[in-house]
Amino acid sequence: MELEFKSVNKILENSIRENWEREALSNYQGATLTYRELAERVAMLHIGFSKCGLEKGDKVAICSRNQANWGVCFLAALSYGAVPVPILHEFKPESIHYLVNHSEAKVLFVDEVLWEGLSEAEMPGLYVIVQINNLRYIYAKEQSLSDVRDNITKTFNETYPDGFRPEDVNYYEDSPEELALINYTSGTSGFSKGVMIPYRALYANMYAAKTVAEPQMNCTSEVVAMLPSAHMYGMMFEFLFEMSIGAHVHFLTRVPSPKIIMKAFQEIHPDIIIAVPLIIEKVYKMQLKPIADRTRTYMYIPILAQSIQKKIRTGLIDAFGGRFEEVILGGAAFNPEVEDFLRKIHFPFTVGYGMTECAPLITYEKWFKTRRGSCGKPIPGCQVRIESSNPHKIPGEVQIKGDNVFLGYYKNREETRKCFTNDGWFKTGDMGIIDNDGYLYLRGRSKCMILGANGQNIYPEELEAVINNASYVVDSLVIEDNGGLTALIYPDYQQGAVDGMDKEALIEKLQASLPELNKQLPLYAQLRRIECLPEDFERTPKRSIKRYLYQRK
Questions:
Q1: Which residue has the higher pLDDT, 127 or 298?
Q2: Are 525 and 518 in contact (CB under 8 A)?
Q3: Strand pairing partners for 444?
Q4: How many C-beta atoms lie closer than 10 Å to residue 538's C-beta?
Q5: Which of 45-59, 327-341, 374-388, 416-430 has the least mean pLDDT?
Q6: CATH classification code of 450-549
Q7: Measured between alpha carbons, how far is 183 from 193 in angstroms, rounded to an integer?
Q8: Is 281's pLDDT higher than 90?
Q9: Peptide bond preceding 270: is omega within 30 degrees of 0, i.e. cis?
């Protein structure tokens, strides 16, 4: 299916005009901006950009925790015709300096807390640095640029003497192949690469959300933004799509702990929940699994089983706000045991598949249509193929072609060349199979695959899913270690302490569980040893483990 492209900025322009007095962006338990107030701030920033000499195509870096002004600055850059460069606020100062310089950004919006660790001297290409919380200049390269900010209100009032009205909203009209934004990701296999996202990829994802994934959403919908907005998954489905339909986005503005997330759900009652599997898996392990274990005996009695399952489902739906259409999971593999349990109780969830390079969605299916272990079917305008002699049975690399695919890596032709086939398909590095109906089933990362002693392909993610179900395991990583398999485990030291075990006793208990774990694993994928880590794994923006840091020769 070939999509008929529409300008992303013009879609946003129309949405703002049509929803002028509706609520647009809120800081959770803080201030709210209407679409009118959002548009006024965007217009002021456009004046500032123009007066500072910012040209179409220039880069605007944004480095901040989630908040309403993050959305303001992103939309201001995009609708001006500049290229937003979202940078994860959790990156270290030296990484932020590097990414600002590598992207050749002319403007940097930065959180005041982050600014304390940064230095303008390390970013000589910047015209101005703006404190995102209040949009005041922290640094200006020249005095004339400081004057721009000092006079911005006066200039705005002179530009719009009759007040700022819906008809004054007039945004840059983009074209399909034009560079929309650069999204940096450290990934799980090495150093950060600048993913160049074209406008057609943004439109393809917005179209998929509106027609396939979330057609029930409209200008009355409420959404809780808890994923990093600097990452493509959160940016697209907790912010950009919502702005295109006039919905109301609530930014959590703080570390999204399960306690804060659940509290926000209870107060806001979101219409859709976008999450990573880890959130659901934590709820399952801490709250649902104990109930399932206690009632296991009754599950063999049909009437009691149905009653118990209904009660668990109702409680879980209420905990997530009670009004959502479905929970959409993505960003990492989903634990099969948790998936089976949620399917058994008919909980409305679905697992999608995407990558930053596809802005991000590749496959998706509604919760009542999807299949166990699958991450759905290709979105409109996207094709998926498996590089395998038998794509239905033998895993091969998942390759993508379509409107959602990126342009390449910024200033990195070699990496761009390596990730495309000779006939133009994007090589994801993921392994999978596809059934006769087009449903995709992932089997792991090709780079993570371990070749067994007898030539078997071992996908560590499948082993980790088993290990992560064990008591006192927060997360795990299976690696090749001197010809065998070692499980690196980050234990739940806190729960161990609650249950009366010090660290040494907990580690001893986990290591003693090796024979029991191996009973659940294939004979060709037996673990040789368990090694416990004192601290959590280092992670990417998607909360995936940085596997490359833990590999051994």
A1: 127
A2: no
A3: 431
A4: 12
A5: 327-341
A6: 3.30.300.30
A7: 8
A8: no
A9: no
Gap between the Cα atoms of 229 and 234, Å rounded: 5
CATH code linked to domain 273-323+326-445: 3.40.50.12780
Q: What is the pLDDT of residues 78-129, one digit of tens each?
A: 999 999 999 988 888 988 999 999 999 999 999 989 999 999 999 999 999 9
CB atoms within 10 A of CB 23: 18
Q: Which residues are within 8 A (CB) of 52 and not within 5 positions of it... i.e. 6 or more apart?
A: 106, 107, 127, 128, 145, 148
Helix (H) or strand (E) holding 143: helix 143-150
Partnered with residue 473 across adjacent β-strands are 491
pLDDT score for 291: 78
Q: What is the pTM of this model?
A: 0.85
As a whole number of angstroms, the distance between CA 54 and CA 298 comes to 67
> What is the CB-side half-sphere exposure of residue 128 using CA atoms within 13 A?
24
Q: SS3 for 66?
A: coil
Q: Where does residue 53 fall: left (phi above 0), alpha (psi -120 to 50 degrees), or beta otherwise?
A: left
For tokens 């979101």, the residue is: 270
Mean pLDDT of the chain: 92
Do the first three CATH levels of 273-323+326-445 and 450-549 match, i.e. the same topology? no
User: Rounded to 5 degrees, what angle do the CA atoms 303, 307, 312 make?
Assistant: 150
Residue 256 pLDDT > 50, yes or no? yes
Report which of residues 259 and 474 the model is more confident about: 474
User: Residue 186's closest CA among 83, 91, 118, 278?
Assistant: 91
Tokens matching residue 18: 């049509």
Which of 267, 405, 387 shows the shortest CA–CA distance to 323?
A: 267
Give Cα separations from 340 to 334, 346, 503 (angstroms). Answer: 10, 10, 32
Number of Cβ within 10 Å of residue 259's Cβ equals: 8
Percent of the residues in the chain that have a pLDDT greater than 70, as a whole number: 97
**Contact (CB, 8 A) for 182 and 196:** yes
Whether the Cβ atoms of residue 320 and residue 267 lie closer than 8 Å to each other = no
The per-residue pLDDT for 542 is: 67
472 and 498 in contact (C-beta within 8 Å)?
no
What is the separation of C-alpha 168 from the centre of its chain, rounded to a whole number of angstroms?
33
Sequence spans of domains, the chain: 8-251, 273-323+326-445, 450-549
Taking each helix axis as running N to C, give the angle between helix 258-268 and helix 302-319, from 0 to 180 degrees, rounded to the nearest 10.
90
Distance, C-alpha 396 to centroid of its chain: 25
Closest CA to 214 of 311, 326, 81, 49: 326
**CA separation for the pair 422, 424 (Å, rounded):** 6
Position 495 pLDDT exceeds 90? yes
In this predicted structure, the answer to whether residue 146 has a pLDDT above a threshold of 70 is yes
Mean pLDDT of 536-540: 87
Candidate CATH numbers 3.40.50.2000, 3.40.1390.30, 3.20.20.120, 3.40.50.12780; the one for domain 8-251: 3.40.50.12780
Helices 143-150 and 152-159, interaxial angle, to 10°? 60
